[in-house]
């Protein structure tokens, strides 16, 4: 298990943790920056100040309680549905690729893609939010057409690592995908 | 100009224009062919244009020519809307990540090209502009466009025009120093336009028209010519390729005079089909009202057709006297010209298609164009880019008091915006794009046939 | 190729024995279903397995041996286990052994034929047998293609899920049964069953039969009545109450039909309909109990008449205002007066109609309230119909039959007239055959008349447009209220409540897929993974099991609605028959 520091496209520091469970099983996790107490308190105080301003103007205490309510709900929603702490990729040779993103509240959403569906893992370029970025994606095999690609599943969508980090992940993935390519040949010889 | 030897520098050129494939036309093929020849000569070239329908993002064409289809709103006639500022973040990102040294903008109709020039100058990059069209001076819209062109070109390093008429026009319109304007004509790929006399039906006479059906191309003249000549010559046929708002005019003419069997409207043509249409005819008719450099007549001549054209713009420079019949842009003059051509055809005094082709083949080639463009780049690369205060001075002194000050203000705002963007995302955290162009590029030819993933792997292992 | 062994986690404490399960050769994986304990007679095991195979149509076989040694390693046992491999010939022969309470098991394979003992990598995947058996993978596979073809195509996981789900029979024996063979699996400590469920199953059959009989009776009556009087079917189709009743009737028919549900989807659909019907009726009865307490109906009826009067008065004021110089606009006086009087007369008619009804309103409401026991949706539909009837005058303003004087037609005609005359003005005409605008040369007389008409129409346009605008806004208000009610009804009708409850309480029953968790590793031992079921997200639960409803949502977007309003086309709260079909 090793951990290396990289930067995201936005410049935020991220950490890539690689862990080899066995010869055909890699776990790669990209951990984004933690929730900063500074920004949290800044947003909260901004909302409360605005609420206090309204309270002074309208002289109804409803505003203040609404502000507290809104901050709480907002924080819960942010932690539970928006803020992704860690995105990890579990590549198990001959079984499949599992993509997990864990939210700050501890909620995890997982998708498992079987190896028979995976056509390849590639690095691609895209225009995203006034930026041109590199991203890693899984190409899914089109069941009708063996050459075609039915769907592209982008990875690390929230942390958006830079190219050097993506290359590390890419190399590890390709190492395992290569095993899959060579396996049928060797059995053919045997 | 002496730098054209083996020790020449490689430039990172960014072609910017609103017009690129899958849109079809002269500017589009010019950009494509020029880029291909420049890649062949060892430069890194990329094309930036706006998104066409579902075609957006980043695509690779032959030889790793990278095309950015940016998601900008199209306003009118495939030209993007401009606010002069909103495209800066994306264009700056592209210029930085591709390490662009020269920004080459195309076509004065393209708002995106002007935007890119403006941003490139703010970022301190060298700029080149190619003008593909002619303008008038009289009406309100021309006056406005010319003013904008003056602003846009007054601090551009170099301007390329496609013909001497065009150069004259541009110099006058934009009040430029003729020293920084070069003439590099367009070219055609002669191997794509070879004559094939067997394809045409010699029992009848066929006149071919291939152009977009818009006002500028003189379609209203064509609608006057068709009934007149069809009445006079019963074995005369018209073949019209192209699409546009003026198609309805031709359809009405066809219906009114019952010419459905003699006037065929083919609709929009793919570039590779143009040759197959051209070789079916004997005479090529061009009715343009304004034209900087007519590629269509060169293509037609290369296919061995007799060309009849209006004498406007740069057309007289394009072909030698014996290959073209020039007329005034009126129905009568064009009819006379066509009748003369038909008479020559009937008497057999026209040169054979093969000889015409062999003659035209040598006139215009893309390699030649690329060489000459490269010389322009060499010259531009040695020039110094105007600093901010010089640029403001130039704007104020060159463009008149009101416009000058307004655009100087815009330039300052743009600069401040750029400083803000550099603070938000410093250049150092923008990933450098992997160079895929040319024979030395990361994507060599054999991998293009293989899978995308393998290609990427090659990059990573290298 | 890596060998995968799917091992049920309930068998991890089983005594030593042999492993039975299915070998999926194309994926090089073994799905272990149960462990057979010592002592057994090999012939009996073989016979038992062949019986199971006949019932389940799954190739269940002996895959290998399992040793769970609680004491020191016994030499004799391991030799014996290897010998077993020769009795039950299987390729490869899997040997799993657990030492005392160690978490890390050693796992090896024996290849008898191949003389090169190649070390194969093995992955041990633990799975929860109960959950896997009961869960259904989504999206469900279509069962139409031939089965053998499917088996090849189906993904690894689907094959594994199928194997476990289809071998239910294997799990029906517990350890208290006296059989020749002792098995360990998830139900080996006792088969799960519930008395209530069994009783309900027994009771549902006669209940369904009774319901079916009643339903067929009602539908027969309905059909006969409907056929008799010709205007009735038209009226039924316009009243949303009848639509809703018909819809519910269909639902009841679906539930009570004694045909067995063919697959998972149909089963879920039946359950969803049943639950939504139950909840609907429960809500309706709740509403009814609220309404009939404390004479609330009387209060409602008392307030209704003054409200209607008030609305009428407001409308009259509005018309008076329009007949003057509204917002300082100077309108065509003659046309203005004609239109205004016409509408005033209408309001007068409507008020007398309401006053005529006023003594009966309480009684009507009382009877209508009873309908809530048929369900909340029916009550809501009746409410929507009442609103439609009470605001009939607004509808009349909007479309008064097909009369040319109607505002809508007037405005519509004006717009069409203006557009065609504008074309005439420019020397163009609309070519109907080719669907395009042609140029055309008109005579002088034609041009003169056309221009005259164009001018008159143009100057009369503001007056008509103003009336149109005001009454369209009123109409839109009513349509929006009705639309909201229908949206609520649709929501109750279409929400798959049973599936949502299932997802909430037994999330493993609806599986979107699986997820793996890597368990602790030790060098030299096989990779251990825990397979868990990944439940379907709520969004896709609703999407998959949404019940179809009778009314369709308005398909036109905002721009097309605005366009329709501008050109004066009719907008309906209810849909036409033709539109309903898709």
UniProtKB/TrEMBL annotation, chain A:
One of its GO terms (biological process) is GPI anchor biosynthetic process. The chain crosses the membrane at residues 40-57, 63-82. It holds the Pfam family PIG-H. Pathway: Glycolipid biosynthesis; glycosylphosphatidylinositol-anchor biosynthesis. Residues 88-157 form the Phosphatidylinositol N-acetylglucosaminyltransferase subunit H conserved domain. It comes from the Eukaryota. Keywords: Membrane, Transmembrane, Transmembrane helix. The keyword Protein biosynthesis does not apply. GO terms for cellular component: glycosylphosphatidylinositol-N-acetylglucosaminyltransferase (GPI-GnT) complex. InterPro entries: PIG-H, PIGH-H_dom. PANTHER family: PHOSPHATIDYLINOSITOL N-ACETYLGLUCOSAMINYLTRANSFERASE SUBUNIT H. Belongs to the PIGH family. This is Phosphatidylinositol glycan anchor biosynthesis class H. It comes from Apteryx owenii (Little spotted kiwi). The lineage of its organism: Eukaryota, Metazoa, Chordata, Craniata, Vertebrata.
Automatic annotation (TrEMBL), chain B:
Residues 200-343 form the Glycosyl transferase family domain. InterPro entries: Glyco_trans_1, PIG-A/GPI3, PIGA_GPI_anchor_biosynthesis. Its main location: endoplasmic reticulum. Residues 50-139 form the PIGA GPI anchor biosynthesis domain. The chain crosses the membrane at residues 402-421. Its EC number is 2.4.1.198. It is an enzyme of class 2 (transferase). Coiled coil: none annotated. Pathway: Glycolipid biosynthesis; glycosylphosphatidylinositol-anchor biosynthesis. One of its GO terms (cellular component) is glycosylphosphatidylinositol-N-acetylglucosaminyltransferase (GPI-GnT) complex. Gene3D superfamilies: Glycogen Phosphorylase B (3.40.50.2000). It is a single-pass membrane protein. GO terms for biological process: GPI anchor biosynthetic process. It is found in: Endoplasmic reticulum membrane. Keywords: Endoplasmic reticulum, Glycosyltransferase, GPI-anchor biosynthesis, Lipid metabolism, Membrane, Phosphoprotein, Transferase, Transmembrane, Transmembrane helix. It catalyses: a 1,2-diacyl-sn-glycero-3-phospho-(1D-myo-inositol) + UDP-N-acetyl-alpha-D-glucosamine = a 6-(N-acetyl-alpha-D-glucosaminyl)-1-(1,2-diacyl-sn-glycero-3-phospho)-1D-myo-inositol + UDP + H(+). GO terms for molecular function: phosphatidylinositol N-acetylglucosaminyltransferase activity. Catalytic subunit of the glycosylphosphatidylinositol-N-acetylglucosaminyltransferase (GPI-GnT) complex that catalyzes the transfer of N-acetylglucosamine from UDP-N-acetylglucosamine to phosphatidylinositol and participates in the first step of GPI biosynthesis. PANTHER family: N-ACETYLGLUCOSAMINYL-PHOSPHATIDYLINOSITOL BIOSYNTHETIC PROTEIN, PHOSPHATIDYLINOSITOL N-ACETYLGLUCOSAMINYLTRANSFERASE SUBUNIT A. Belongs to the glycosyltransferase group 1 family. Glycosyltransferase 4 subfamily. This is Phosphatidylinositol N-acetylglucosaminyltransferase subunit A. It comes from Apteryx owenii (Little spotted kiwi).
UniProtKB/TrEMBL annotation, chain C:
The chain crosses the membrane at residues 203-222, 273-292, 338-357, 364-392, 398-425, 446-470, 476-501. InterPro entries: PigQ/GPI1 (IPR007720). Keywords: Glycosyltransferase, Membrane, Transferase, Transmembrane, Transmembrane helix. This is Phosphatidylinositol N-acetylglucosaminyltransferase subunit Q isoform X1. GO terms for molecular function: glycosyltransferase activity.
């Amino acid at each position: 298990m090793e951990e290396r520091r990289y930067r995201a496209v936005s410049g935020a520091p991220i950490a890539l943790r690689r862990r080899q469970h066995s010869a055909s099983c890699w776990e790669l996790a990209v951990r984004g920056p933690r929730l900063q107490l500074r920004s949290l308190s800044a947003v909260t105080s901004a909302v409360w100040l605005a609420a206090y301003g309204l309270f002074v103007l309208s002289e109804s205490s409803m505003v203040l309680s609404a502000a507290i309510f809104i901050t709480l709900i907002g924080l819960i929603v942010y932690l539970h549905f928006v803020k992704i702490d860690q995105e990890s990729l579990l590549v198990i040779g001959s079984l499949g690729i599992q993509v997990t993103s864990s939210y700050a509240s501890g909620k995890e959403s997982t998708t498992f893609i079987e190896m028979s569906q995976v056509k390849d893992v590639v690095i691609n370029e895209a225009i995203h939010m006034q930026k041109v970025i590199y991203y890693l994606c899984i190409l899914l095999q089109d069941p009708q057409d063996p050459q075609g690609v039915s769907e592209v599943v982008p990875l690390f969508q929230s942390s958006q690592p830079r190219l050097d980090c993506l290359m590390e992940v890419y190399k590890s993935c390709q190492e395992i995908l290569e095993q899959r390519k060579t396996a049928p040949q060797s059995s053919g010889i045997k | 100009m002496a730098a054209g030897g083996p020790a020449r520098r490689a430039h990172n050129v960014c072609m910017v224009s609103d017009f690129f494939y899958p849109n079809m036309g002269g500017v589009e093929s010019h950009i494509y062919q020029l880029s291909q020849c420049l890649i062949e000569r060892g430069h890194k070239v990329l094309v930036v244009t706006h998104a066409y329908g579902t075609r957006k993002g980043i695509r690779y064409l032959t030889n790793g020519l990278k095309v950015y289809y940016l998601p900008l709103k199209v306003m009118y006639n495939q030209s993007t809307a401009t606010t002069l500022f909103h495209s800066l973040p994306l264009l700056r990102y592209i210029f930085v990540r591709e390490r662009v040294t020269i920004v080459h903008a195309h076509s004065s109709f393209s708002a995106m090209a002007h935007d890119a020039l403006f941003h490139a100058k703010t970022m301190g990059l060298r700029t080149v502009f190619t003008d593909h069209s002619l303008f008038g001076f009289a009406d309100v819209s021309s006056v406005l466009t010319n003013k904008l062109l003056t602003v846009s070109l007054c601090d551009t390093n170099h301007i390329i025009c496609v013909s001497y008429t065009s150069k004259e026009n541009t110099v006058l319109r934009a009040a430029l120093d003729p020293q920084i304007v070069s003439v590099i004509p367009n070219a055609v790929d002669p191997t794509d336009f070879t004559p094939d006399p067997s394809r045409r039906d010699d029992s009848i006479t066929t006149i071919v028209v291939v152009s977009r059906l818009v006002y500028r191309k003189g379609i209203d003249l064509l609608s006057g010519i068709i009934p007149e000549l069809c009445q006079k010559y019963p074995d005369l046929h018209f073949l019209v390729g192209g699409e546009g708002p003026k198609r309805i005019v031709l359809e009405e003419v066809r219906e009114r005079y019952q010419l459905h069997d003699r006037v065929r409207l083919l609709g929009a043509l793919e570039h590779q089909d143009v040759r197959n249409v051209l070789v079916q005819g004997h005479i090529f008719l061009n009715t343009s009202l304004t034209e900087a450099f007519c590629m269509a007549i060169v293509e037609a001549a290369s296919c061995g057709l007799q060309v009849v054209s209006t004498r406007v713009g740069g057309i007289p420079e394009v072909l030698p006297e014996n290959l073209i019949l020039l007329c005034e842009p009126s129905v009568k003059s064009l009819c006379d010209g066509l009748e003369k051509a038909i008479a020559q055809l009937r008497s057999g005094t026209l040169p054979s298609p093969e000889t015409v082709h062999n003659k035209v083949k040598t006139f215009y080639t893309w390699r030649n164009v690329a060489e000459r463009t490269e010389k322009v780049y060499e010259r531009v690369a040695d020039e110094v880019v105007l600093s901010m205060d010089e640029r403001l001075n130039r704007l104020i002194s060159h463009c008149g008091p009101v416009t000058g000050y307004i655009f100087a203000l815009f330039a300052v705002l743009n600069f401040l915006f750029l400083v803000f963007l550099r603070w938000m995302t410093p250049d150092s955290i923008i990933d450098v794009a992997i160079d895929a162009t040319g024979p030395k590029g990361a994507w060599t030819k054999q991998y293009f046939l293989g899978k995308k993933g393998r290609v990427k792997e090659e990059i990573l292992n290298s | 190729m890596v060998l995968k062994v799917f091992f049920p986690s309930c068998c991890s404490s089983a005594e030593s024995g042999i492993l039975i399960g299915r070998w999926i050769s194309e994926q090089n994986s073994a799905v272990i279903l149960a462990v057979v304990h010592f002592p057994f007679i090999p012939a009996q095991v073989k016979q038992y397995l062949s019986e199971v195979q006949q019932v389940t149509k799954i190739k269940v076989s002996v895959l290998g041996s399992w040793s769970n040694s609680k004491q020191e390693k016994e030499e004799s046992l391991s030799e014996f286990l290897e010998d077993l491999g020769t009795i039950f010939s299987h390729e490869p022969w899997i040997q799993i052994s657990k030492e005392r309470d160690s978490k890390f098991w050693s796992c090896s394979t024996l290849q008898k034929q191949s003389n090169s003992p190649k070390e194969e990598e093995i992955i041990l995947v633990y799975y929860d047998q109960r959950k896997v058996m009961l869960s259904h993978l989504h999206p469900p596979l279509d069962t139409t293609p031939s089965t053998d073809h499917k088996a090849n195509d189906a993904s690894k996981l689907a094959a594994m899920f199928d194997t476990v789900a289809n071998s239910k029979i294997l799990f029906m024996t517990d350890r208290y049964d006296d059989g020749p063979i002792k098995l360990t699996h998830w139900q080996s400590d006792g088969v799960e069953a519930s008395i209530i469920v069994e009783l309900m199953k027994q009771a549902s059959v006669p209940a369904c039969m009774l319901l079916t009989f009643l339903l067929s009776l009602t539908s027969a009556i309905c059909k006969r009545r409907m056929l008799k009087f010709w205007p009735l079917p038209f009226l039924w189709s316009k009243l949303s109450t009848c639509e809703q009743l018909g819809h519910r009737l269909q639902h009841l028919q679906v539930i009570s039909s004694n045909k067995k549900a063919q697959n998972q989807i149909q089963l879920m659909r039946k359950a969803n309909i049943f639950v939504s019907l139950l909840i609907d009726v429960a809500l309706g009865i709740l509403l009814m109990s609220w309404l009939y307490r404390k004479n609330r109906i009387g209060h409602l009826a008392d307030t209704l008449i003054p409200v209607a009067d008030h609305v009428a008065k407001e409308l009259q004021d509005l018309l008076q205002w329009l007949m003057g110089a509204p917002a300082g606009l100077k309108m065509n006086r003659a046309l203005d007066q004609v239109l205004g009087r016409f509408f005033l007369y209408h309001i007068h008619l409507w008020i007398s109609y309401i006053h005529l009804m006023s003594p009966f309103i309480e009684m009507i409401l009382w009877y209508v309230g009873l309908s809530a026991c048929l369900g909340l949706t029916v009550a809501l539909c009746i409410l929507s119909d009442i609103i439609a009837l009470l605001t009939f005058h607004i509808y009349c303003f909007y479309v008064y039959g097909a009369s040319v004087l109607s505002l809508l037609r007037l405005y519509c005609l004006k717009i069409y007239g203006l557009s065609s005359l504008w074309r005439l003005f420019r020397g163009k005409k609309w070519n109907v055959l080719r669907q395009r605008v042609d140029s055309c040369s008109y005579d002088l007389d034609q041009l003169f008349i056309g221009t005259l008409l164009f001018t008159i129409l143009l100057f009369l346009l503001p007056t008509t447009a103003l009336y149109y605008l005001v009454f369209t806004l009123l109409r839109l208000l009513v349509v929006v209220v009705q639309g909201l009610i229908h949206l609520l009804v649709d929501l109750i009708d279409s929400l798959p409540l049973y599936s949502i409850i299932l997802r909430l309480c037994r999330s493993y029953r609806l599986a979107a897929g699986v997820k793996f968790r890597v368990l602790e590793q030790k060098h030299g031992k096989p990779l251990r993974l825990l397979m868990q079921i990944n439940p379907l997200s709520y969004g896709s639960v609703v999407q998959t099991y949404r019940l179809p409803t009778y009314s369709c949502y308005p398909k036109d977007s905002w721009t097309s609605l605005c366009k329709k309003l501008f050109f004066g086309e009719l907008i309906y709260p209810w849909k036409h028959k033709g539109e309903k079909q898709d």
